[in-house]
Amino acid sequence: MLRPSIFRGLAGALCVLSGSVTFATAEGYMLGTMDKLNIRIVEWQTAEGAVRDWSSISGEYVVGPAGVISVPIVGEVEANGRTTADVATEIGDALQQKLGLMDRPEASVELAEYRPFFLSGDVATPGRYPFDPNLTVLKAVSIAGGMRRSAETGQRIERDFINASGDVDVLSADRMRLIARKARLEAETTGSAEIQFPEELSGTEQGQKLIEDETAFRDARAERLERQLAAIDDLKELLENEIVALERKITSQNEQIELSREQLAGIGDLADRGLVVNERVLSIGRSVADLEGRVLDMETAALRAKQDIAQATQDANALRNDRDAEVAQELQQAEANLEAANLKILTSNSLMQEALSIAPEAAGAVGAAEPDISYVIVREIDGEPQEMPAQEHTPVLPGDVVKVKIEPVAAAAVEQPS
Q: How far apart are CA 90 and CA 86, in angstroms?
């Protein structure tokens, strides 16, 4: 049975753990309007030595516009600007005081859902969105569907050119990985000790890294198969040794049987003439029967060992066949993915050429690295909204408003890709 002090310690630990699920609570996250809380209340009853669950009060609560939650019996509890631990303490104290309880109820307050954040400005879908931990400005913009297309044809084409160029970069990286994987799988299919990687991989740092990774993966998989086959070979060797030992024992037993039969034949006539006690004849007969039974058992054991050797051989063949089938399937998938990547690269290049045919100056967007985009976060601090300039990796907090603005891209003359 839990003691009250131990129970309170566990309940307090529960409050702490529930407040450390995410980065925000770990830093002492301050609650605000529209936060959703899960509240559970339990009480240690000293007189009964048991725990009572206050299920009628426990449940989900939403911080209202006034920054409070309304808890039965307790009434309104201020949540805005406070931590979950603060709210839990106040609820427990209020219940004890209002109900005159000898033991203070323990409240566990867990943040069930953060208040939403908002996006406005040049994004595809401005509006309100649920908050996720570790959210940054870039992730927030992605949630809203990315940047909004401008009504101006020139700026739209520039962004289309940028997007297509970015797609080519991503697809090219995927293509490099698929080429390295295909080379490794072809080597595994043929059983070659060396992987013949294309020269286009060895000429770049990324390609060298892919070569190292695929080589290490091939070696690890080959080593695992070798260990499995070695274990089967060890088992077969053990069984073969057992068969040899059994055959030797069978030979020895057969020799003893033969000797016993000769002895039985020698005293048979004497027994018929009453010169030998019949009990001795029966004893020798039983001995022969026992030896024959042992031989039969040994022959059965030897046969079972041979069956186990055959099964082990089948298992080894199955391992090799499964490995070959797996490699063949992966090679087929890699070739299909590589073909798809090549087609997508061709499509993106075609889109880039089309954009350039309409607005040749769109190539300047690539020359400028990225369009000129500004971000501003509007955050409530001490009850007052404040604007702060932000970057793509600036953290976004619950309740923030992220304002996005795209400045016109300065076109620059560049050569069209061949």
A: 6
